[in-house]
């Protein structure tokens, strides 16, 4: 069925915003440290390449730091647009 | 040791080839043949376009004898060339146009050979990309180099063939073409992003750029088109058979190409290298290659009923 794959570029933007929001919402103290994914538990050895877990933790931390302000702007724009145009 | 010897042997052979072609008079590292009558090639065309506005002031003198309008015309043309320079410079910052040009430097022989390898990769022996002073050689000189011409043409042909297939089932309407195009584009973007993410997580030190990944993901359109056309001409059984053949071919092609780029040198030669990281890289290569047949089936099964 063509319906199931009627993806548009707008869907892609929506997916991207939702995923970024989901990553940015993971709180450092309340959640990540409790499950052993805190910032101090990521950096292992310095000699070899970091493992997959260290890369994931690095990614989460950088998304949180870099995308905080742009996400505020984009989310507010989305809210306003959805309220106005449904 | 043998690997570096083979690679340096390549470079020598390749440099000899390039030196031969450069004896034709054009610069050996140039991407495109010189077909313009005025300038000495791609960069020469730009230089000519910049030189022309200043030369245009002279023939204008025969039309207008007023020196003030001459001055105005010269000033206006220099302003226009400045504006074009600024646009080119700023555009080059966002979209690396010079890098994109490399991927479209193809010729008919390359396209023919590459299509043959995509459909029948079992006879091809040598999968290494040859380099010229650390820069990968343009696709027209090396059949293993990725290009963007075949994926772009394949994408457009896929959309047209999808429209044709939908038309034979009386399900066609013009906006469905747009829906097909955007769906396929979204799947492509998501696949490239997923591959980039997994490459980041596994910390592979590779020289694969994003555009290379885009090119590799776009090669599956060739198989999809062959499958759908066979299904339209000869029925559902032909669709399944040709799709099976093309899926296997793309699987082998991706594994052999990615093996050289992602795995460490020892593992790429076929020796069994233990270690968690090499295992992870092997799994990554396998899953990237296995995702291609899945996408090929997913994007075409609704076209052939």
UniProtKB/TrEMBL annotation, chain A:
It comes from Poecilia reticulata. The lineage of its organism: Eukaryota, Metazoa, Chordata, Craniata, Vertebrata. The keyword Isomerase does not apply. It comes from the Eukaryota. Regulator of endoplasmic reticulum secretion that acts as a key determinant of brain size. Required for secretion of extracellular matrix proteins. Required for correct brain development by depositing sufficient extracellular matrix proteins for tissue integrity and the proliferation of neural progenitors. Acts as a regulator of the unfolded protein response (UPR). Belongs to the YOS1 family. This is Immediate early response 3-interacting protein 1. Residues 1-24 form the signal peptide. GO terms for biological process: endoplasmic reticulum to Golgi vesicle-mediated transport; protein transport. It is found in: Membrane. InterPro entries: Yos1. The chain crosses the membrane at residues 67-85. GO terms for cellular component: COPII-coated ER to Golgi transport vesicle; endoplasmic reticulum membrane; Golgi membrane. Keywords: Membrane, Protein transport, Signal, Transmembrane, Transmembrane helix, Transport.
Automatic annotation (TrEMBL), chain B:
It is found in: Endoplasmic reticulum membrane; Golgi apparatus membrane. InterPro entries: Yif1_fam. GO terms for cellular component: COPII-coated ER to Golgi transport vesicle; endoplasmic reticulum membrane; endoplasmic reticulum-Golgi intermediate compartment; Golgi membrane. The chain crosses the membrane at residues 148-167, 179-201, 213-233, 239-259, 280-299. GO terms for biological process: endoplasmic reticulum to Golgi vesicle-mediated transport; protein transport. It is a multi-pass membrane protein. Its main location: endoplasmic reticulum. It comes from the Eukaryota. Keywords: Endoplasmic reticulum, Golgi apparatus, Membrane, Protein transport, Transmembrane, Transmembrane helix, Transport. Residues 1-38 have a biased composition (Polar residues). Pfam families: YIF1. Residues 1-46 are annotated as: Disordered. PANTHER family: PROTEIN YIF1B, YIP1 INTERACTING FACTOR HOMOLOG YIF1 PROTEIN. Has a role in transport between endoplasmic reticulum and Golgi. Belongs to the YIF1 family. This is Protein YIF1. It comes from Poecilia reticulata (Guppy). The lineage of its organism: Eukaryota, Metazoa, Chordata, Craniata, Vertebrata.
């Amino acid at each position: 069925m063509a319906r199931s794959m009627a993806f548009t570029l707008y869907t892609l933007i929506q997916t991207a915003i939702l995923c970024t929001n989901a990553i940015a919402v993971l709180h450092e103290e309340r959640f990540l440290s409790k499950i052993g994914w805190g910032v101090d538990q990521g950096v292992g050895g310095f000699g070899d390449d970091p493992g997959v877990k260290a890369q994931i933790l690095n990614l989460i931390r950088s998304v949180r730091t870099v995308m905080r302000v742009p996400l505020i702007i984009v989310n507010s724009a989305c809210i306003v647009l959805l309220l106005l145009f449904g | 040791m043998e690997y570096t010897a083979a690679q340096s042997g390549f470079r020598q052979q390749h440099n000899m080839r390039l030196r031969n072609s450069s004896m034709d008079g054009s610069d050996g590292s140039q991407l495109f043949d010189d077909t313009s009558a005025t300038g000495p090639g791609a960069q020469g065309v730009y230089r000519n376009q910049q030189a022309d506005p200043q030369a245009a002031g002279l023939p204008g003198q025969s039309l207008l004898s007023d020196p003030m309008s001459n001055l105005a015309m010269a000033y206006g043309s220099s302003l226009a060339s400045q504006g074009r320079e600024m646009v080119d410079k700023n555009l080059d910052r966002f979209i690396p146009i010079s890098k994109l040009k490399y991927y479209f430097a193809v010729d008919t022989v390359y396209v023919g050979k590459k299509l043959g390898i995509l459909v029948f990769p079992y006879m091809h022996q040598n999968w290494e990309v040859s380099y010229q002073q650390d820069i990968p050689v343009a696709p027209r000189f090396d059949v293993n180099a990725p290009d963007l011409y075949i994926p772009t043409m394949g994408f457009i042909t896929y959309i047209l063939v999808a429209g044709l297939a939908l038309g034979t089932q009386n399900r066609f309407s013009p906006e469905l073409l747009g829906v097909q195009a955007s769906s396929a584009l979204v799947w492509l973007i998501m696949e490239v992003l997923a591959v980039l993410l997994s490459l980041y997580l596994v910390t592979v030190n590779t020289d694969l750029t994003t555009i290379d990944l885009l090119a590799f993901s776009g090669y599956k359109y060739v198989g999809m088109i062959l499958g759908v056309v066979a299904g339209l001409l000869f029925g559902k059984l032909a669709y399944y058979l040709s799709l099976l053949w093309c899926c296997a071919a793309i699987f082998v092609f991706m594994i052999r190409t990615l093996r050289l780029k992602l795995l460490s040198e020892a593992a790429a030669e076929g020796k069994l290298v233990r270690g968690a990281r090499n295992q992870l890289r092997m799994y990554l290569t396998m899953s990237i290659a296995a995702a291609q047949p899945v996408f090929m089936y997913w994007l075409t099964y609704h076209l052939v009923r």
